[in-house]
Amino acid sequence: MLKPESMYASEIDDEIAQVFLEYTSKERSYFNGTSYIDKSLNILYGAINNYYYLLSRKYFLLKKNLLIFQASLLEKNMVDHIDEKASSITAQETKEGFN
Question: Which domain of life is it from (predicted)?
Fold first, then answer.
């Protein structure tokens, strides 16, 4: 199953865990030769839907973390740029003050 320390750990609530546990607990038949077995199919579809949700959620979280990282780089770059401008202005004022 999924590792508890994975990115999914915070996203898997009790309901999702129960659906995956029920799906993986035993091998199921989905068709008995004449008709489909609704209970088994519902368990399968529940697992598929939750798996899809977790995949899309992981993609979202990865993009969010990337955007946060990019924003921090931009913020650091802006601070460095402002510090550089301030130093330049201070040096120029000091130089002009001595003339």
Answer: Bacteria
DSSP 10: T
Contacts of 17-25 with CB under 8 Å at 24 or more apart are 19/43, 19/46, 19/47, 19/50, 20/47, 20/50, 22/46, 22/47, 23/47
Q: Which residues pair with 36 in a beta bridge?
A: 31
Q: Which two tokens stand for residue 83?
A: 């510090």
Domain residue limits, the chain = 14-98
CB atoms within 10 A of CB 50: 20
Tell me the pLDDT tens digit for each residue of 24-75. Answer: 999 999 999 999 999 999 999 999 999 999 999 989 999 999 999 988 888 8
